[in-house]
Every structure is written in C-alpha cells, then in structure tokens.
Amino acid sequence: MKDQDLTLGEELRRQGISRRSFLKFCAAVASSMAIPASMVPAMAESLAQARRQSVIWMSYQECTACIESLTRSYTPTLESMLFNFISLDYQHALQAAAGRQAEEALHQAMEDNWGEYLVIVDGSIPVKDNGVYSTVDGHTNLESIKEVAEGAAAIIAIGTCASFGGVGAAQPNPTGAVGVDEIITDKPILNVPGCPPMPEVMTGVLTSFLSFGRLPDVDSKKRPLAFFGETIHDRCYRRPYYDQGKYAKSFDDEGARNGWCLYELGCKGPITHNACATLKWNQGTSWPVQSGHGCIGCSEPDFWDKDSFYKPLSAGQWGSAEGIAIAAAAGAAAGVAAAVVSRKNQDKLSGGKKS
C-alpha cells in the first residue's frame, strides 16, 4: 500500500503514535474550537478514517509573516501537520522545488486532486491594470487565483491581506489590492485574519476541515466563530479595570504599572474579534495586551486606515457612535458605582465615621 493510500489512523499507528496520544491531540483541538468534549471520540474517528489532504498554498502580495506564524504552532506543530495530516503540494517558502519544477508540481497536484484539494491563500491580490503588479511564472496573481480556485474543494484565506486586502489595500491602494472573496464567489471561503493570524487558529481550522469535511461555522465576515465569535475585550484579563473605570493614561504611569485598562491609550479590543486573549502567543506565553500594548485591531477589515493605533476609539472609524458611546458610558458608570461601593465599605469598616 502506498503512503498516500493510508488513512491518517493507519499512518499514525505505523509511526508508533498511540490512540491515547491521538485522543489527547483531538481533545486539545476540540477545546480550542469550543467543540463539546462529547464530540471528541467522533472527531477522532472521523480524523482517523481521513486520508492526507492535498493542500495548495498560494502566496501573493504578502510579507511571509503568515507562514512564519504557522511555523510557531504547537498544537499541532507544523511538522506534525506536514508529515501526518496534510500533503502540502505547493508552497513557495517551504517546498524544496523551485522555478519550473515548482510550477510543474503545482499543476500536477491540481490534476491529481481535482475537485478535492484545499487552497490556502496568504497575501492580497492586485486587480488594478489587470493585476500586473504581482506575477509568478509570467502569470498575474489574479490569473493564478482564478485558475487554482476552479478545481478547489474550498479556500482558506490566511491573514488580513488575503481576507480583507490588509496593508496592500491601505490608502491609497496603488495596486488595487483586494481579498480573495472579492474575486472568487463560487467556492466555500473561510477568512482567518490577523497580521499575522494566530498559529493555532490556522492549524485548528485545518484539523477541523480534515475531521468534518467542511469549513467551520462563520460570522458575517466569513471568520470561524470558534476563534472570532467574541471580542478581545470580552476575554481580556484587564476587563475588570475597564468595568471599574480605571484606565492607564500613558504607557509609564501608575495605572499602566498596575495593569489597568488600555482603552484610553488606543486599545481596539472592544471592537476586535480574535482569540488572542484566550489562546495567547508563543505557546500560551503572552499576548500584546499582557505585554503592555493595546490591541491594534489587526483582524478587522481596513484596520490600517482607521486612524491612530494610539487614539481612543471614535465614531465613524472603528464602530458606530452608539456602540462606542455605550461602551465608554458603561465603563465610566461602572467606575463610579465601584467607587461608591468602595466608599460605603470603608465607612462600614470605620464604623460610619468620616475622616
């Protein structure tokens, strides 16, 4: 039996990976995607019966940060994904082939897996002047994505550039850069934004596709709900300080040193949907807000053009006037209420005596 004919379960057993280890892996992925624990055995069974998925990864107008981020994944690791779960048949930065040999590998993979391969795209696609601003092998990115998408089972747009245009589409957008779903409209598309996206989010959606044979449920911007269903603000450990109306006024004041909310220093957490606050970066070590810097909103459309990263949220730029006003008022009101409660408690402890 050829390696490509083996199921994932057979391949893992051949490598000496126990069922217990495999179930632990499935449980970790399920947890990250908010899949009930009761679904883990079914997920494991489905994944074990699957065969290595042919993946074609196209890189267009990008900075390589997305693939760099993927190499930092640890549940599963990139090595585990490549050698055990998927067949990465084309990817500029990771493949050994180059030039004509690489392009032949691409077209061979398309032919062998027509209608079944998964396309991953990072980088925006220029459409101005027929897309002449970015080409590979004499073909524009615009021509390339249309050709590769034709035989794809589904497309995953990795990073904010591929999802929404990103930095390439920032004003004045000289190349007419756009995201994948502005060009391809007849295929299932999943957006995994972030500049760069979180590595475990990328491997998580790949594993989900392998397990269930379809893309996960999405929000209105085609982002997987499991990772983008809540805002950074919803899960931020500094949220209690926001509710108390305690804000750092500068990056080196007492509030900043005490870990107070960074809202007034420009944090875009209240309107940014991502899993940074729960998954964190670098194997769960930290994330921007924990390191003392406000969220810049990198997983939202047009985040480069929405004024300064260091100004508080304002209407018309990052959200509606009503939403921002309500959020600010709630924080302020909670702060006043907390101060009143604190004062009352102090009075009780002092027997009602005023100092």
Notes on the structure:
The chain is an alpha/beta fold and 355 residues long. It folds into two domains: 53-228, NADH:ubiquinone oxidoreductase-like, 20kDa subunit (Rossmann fold), CATH 3.40.50; 232-346, Cytochrome-c3 hydrogenase, C-terminal domain (Cytochrome-c3 Hydrogenase, Chain A, domain 2). 39% of the residues lie in helices and 10% in strands. The protein is built from 15 helices and nine strands. The protein has helices spanning 8-14, 19-32, 40-49, 65-70, 78-85, 99-112, 141-150, 159-164, 199-212, 225-228, 232-235, 239-243, 254-257, 276-279, 321-349, and strands spanning 53-59, 86-90, 117-122, 125-126, 135-136, 139-140, 152-158, 177-178, 189-192. The strands form three sheets. The protein has a five-stranded parallel β-sheet with strand order 2-1-3-7-9, with helices on both faces. Helix 2 packs across helix 3 and helix 3 (40-49) crosses helix 9 (199-212). It is globular and about 60 Å long.
